[in-house]
Description:
- This protein is mostly helical.
- It is built from three helices and no strands.
- Helix 2 (44-132) packs across helix 3 (156-172).
- The protein is elongated.
- The N and C termini lie far apart (110 Å).
Amino acid sequence: MLSPQMNRLPPLPTDLPLWDFHEPDYSIPVPDPRPKPARPRLSVDERRLRRKISNRESARRLRVRKQKHLSDLRSQLDRLMLEKRESMDLLQLALCKHALVHRENERLASEAAVLRQRLWEMAGILKLRQQLNPLPPAAWTCSADDNNNSFACFSEELLALNSLLIALQNQTN
């Protein structure tokens, strides 16, 4: 028959590898020789009073925690509202800049169309002039009396416009 001390032995380890030659510790745990102090028995009223005090303290801690949480939420709300306001300001600024750029782009496109039309007209005039007067471009001159919008005054600028017109035609194709 097994003694009561034998029943307290720890179970044998089953997960040890086969090659582990260390011996497990089979020592018997020794109980603490010091006696535990007995708590004095409290009356029902004393226990009720202690429980009431404990509950009040617990409720106070809960109120403090709730108040801190509420304060944290308010500061987070303030921070998020400020971030939202800053983001809205940045968005408004970006929208204004976009509108300005869009208007400028429309103006430049309109101006480019007008200049393109003028270039086409000048190229037509240049071609007409070349057909009517087949002089080499170096012979074309402008005199003071030719400056009255007659088509007789051509210069190297018109030749540059003609090459620009050809470049524009190549870009659109």
